[in-house]
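To: structure desk
From: M.T.
Subject: fold request, one chain
Message: Could you run this one when you get a chance? Sequence is below, nothing fancy, just the single chain.
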Amino acid sequence: MTANSLDFEAITEPEAGELLVVVGPTASGKTELAIRLAERFNGEIIGADSVQIYRGFDLGSGKPTAAERQRAPHHLVDCADPAEPFDAQRFAELAEQIITEIRARGRVPIVCGGTFLWVRALVRGLAPAPAADAAIRAEHAAFVAAEGRAALHARLAAVDPESAARLAPNDALRVSRALEVHALSGRTQSAWHADHGFRTERHRARLLGVERARDDLDRRIERRTRAWLEQGWIDEVRGLVDRGHAATKAMGSVGYRQIHEHLKGEIAEADLEIAIVRATRIFVRRQRTWIRDEPVAWITPPTA
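Reply: Done. Structure tokens follow.
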């Protein structure tokens, strides 16, 4: 235990107007903690995960199972078509409405998820920036197809090194957005963020996370990846591709992208599990960076 870690039983009931938010790296146990909190405080869970929101992306997103959803009501999970655009702004608007409805029922809203931009948008609002431009995004997509993700990231590094340092070279979607903001406004995305500062508190949030040692989390990632593959993750992705969802945003997420590459013959089956685990660990490092300076109360894993 670290100096600021707590036992599950030490978590107090939220005060009036206080929002419980469960965050943390993938595979750390966020869903179980959120469900335990919902059971304890008469709560309902609002998902903050940019893959779990899509129908059909089930195993690899860690979507709550039917049994878990019976233990506590879940919102903003499994509710959008894979081709449907869903960004942080839309999430925040829908989550605000659901929070109001949950509290009107006399229950406790609990936000849970690893898409920290969505959490930040809900709790602190989004930095103002130009609206999306379809032509610019199409140009970026064509550039990536011809030159690769790393080349697009290099373009961003030339005009906005701070954003480039924050974004992974493979994160073409967010790299494209940062370039788009610069092209449309003449200002870097990092400058927009600095002006905003994410200082406007829309909710008085208490951030909670499950404390895991690095080697423990690595083992959980390995076990989970192997289990999902054994449960039919490849067939799930094959079905999504067959239904026309190969180019969707969610297909570019960790695990789904590697399996799609395997189906295209780019990753051998013998190398697939290792590739997914490696990509997941890289993603976890990025998640840790997101929450490094946040006031998270780390909870020792709750036991049954």
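Reply (cont.): The beta strands are 18-23, 43-47, 74-75, 108-112, 204-210, 296-299. Let me know if you need anything else for the meeting.
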